[in-house]
TrEMBL record:
Keywords: NAD, Oxidoreductase. This is 2-hydroxy-3-oxopropionate reductase. Gene3D superfamilies: N-(1-d-carboxylethyl)-l-norvaline Dehydrogenase, domain 2 (1.10.1040.10), NAD(P)-binding Rossmann-like Domain (3.40.50.720). It is an enzyme of class 1 (oxidoreductase). GO terms for molecular function: 2-hydroxy-3-oxopropionate reductase activity. Residues 6-164 form the 6-phosphogluconate dehydrogenase NADP-binding domain. Belongs to the HIBADH-related family. It comes from Streptomyces griseoincarnatus. Residues 168-287 form the 3-hydroxyisobutyrate dehydrogenase-like NAD-binding domain. Pfam families: NAD_binding_11, NAD_binding_2. Its EC number is 1.1.1.60. InterPro entries: 6-PGluconate_DH-like_C_sf (IPR008927), 6PGD_dom2 (IPR013328), 6PGDH_NADP-bd (IPR006115), HIBADH-like_NADP-bd (IPR029154), HIBADH-related (IPR015815), NAD(P)-bd_dom_sf (IPR036291), Tartro_sem_red (IPR006398).
Length: 296
């Protein structure tokens, strides 16, 4: 019998499926629930167990992980008679790895405390590739003792794992992460259009830029997307639009002024309005091309 905690995993999307499978590979007993039957079948094929409801998934779990798109979905699976808080056992540890508003995380932790359930907010960065390779960056908010307890599980999912402060801190750092990523992708996209219109060998240019001060994880991860115009979603524009709303709102609350972030947030919103919300966020290149006169 494994001495590892039993895990319930709620949300088996682009990120959740490979992450839950990495826990199975690490020896965890994982029971998952999601709305898509094929994703449940995928987890079962990987060695996990499919559950027909949130309540069924969490009932016997020591640790419950949620990985869903946004605050409304977190609230939908957490609250109500069929939700996590009403069906998880007292003493369970709820780890929300979704990217949501900091206030939603704070409120969830307070509500869970009344039920005897501990909470960590632990959003991630690294995209689909990072999830598959188990090299995610995990930024955590919550109590130190709960973080220490969860650390072995996090180590099966990522490489950079840092407690950033009390409840909501992980989400605040994730919002900053998404700000940096969006601005970086926009800068890369503008550089790509500039280089191509100048007649430069784009592949060679991106190679040399990647080796200098302009190099970044974003450029390294998204270079092939730019070169091949491959915008299959690793992280969808729709989700980055949601995240830019989070950082804009949070910045307003604390009195931080984000002028460049505000412009990029509008560019993301514009791309989404043009029907590209389902594409990878590297598709910001398409917005720059349209502004530069290309028909895309």
């Amino acid at each position: 019998m494994s001495t590892l905690p039993k895990v319930a995993w709620i949300g088996l999307g682009i990120m959740g499926s490979p992450m839950s499978e990495n826990l199975v590979k690490a020896g965890y007993d994982v029971t998952g629930h999601t709305l898509e039957r094929d994703k449940l079948d995928r987890l079962a094929a990987a060695g996990g167990t499919a559950a027909s409801s949130v309540a069924e998934a969490v009932r016997d779990a020591d640790v419950i992980v949620t990985m869903v798109p946004a605050s409304p979905q977190v609230e939908a699976v957490a609250y109500g008679p069929d939700g996590i808080l009403e069906n998880a056992r007292r003493g369970a540890l709820l780890i929300d790895m979704s990217s949501i508003t900091p206030q939603t995380s704070v409120d969830l932790a307070a509500a869970a405390k009344d039920k005897g359930i501990r909470v960590l907010d632990a959003p991630v960065s690294g995209g689909e590739a990072g999830a598959i390779e188990a090299v995610l960056s995990i930024m955590v908010g919550g109590d130190q003792a709960d973080f220490d307890e969860a650390k072995p599980l996090f180590e099966a999912l990522g490489k950079t794992i840092v407690r950033c402060g009390p409840h909501g801190s992980g989400q605040t750092v994730k919002a900053a992460n998404q700000l940096i990523v969006a601005v970086n992708i926009q800068a890369c996209a503008e550089a790509v259009v500039f280089l191509e219109k100048s007649g430069v060998d784009l592949a060679a240019a991106l190679d040399v830029l990647g080796g200098g001060l302009a190099g970044s994880t974003v450029l390294a991860r998204k270079k092939d997307n730019f070169l091949n115009r491959d915008f299959q979603p690793g992280f969808r524009i729709d989700l980055h639009h949601k995240d830019m709303g989070i950082v804009t709102d949070a910045a307003r609350t604390v009195g931080a002024v984000l002028p460049v972030g505000a412009v990029v947030a509008q560019l993301v919103a514009g791309l989404r309005a043009q029907g590209d919300g389902g594409l990878d966020h590297s598709a910001l290149l398409r917005a720059v091309e349209r502004l530069s006169g290309a028909q895309v």
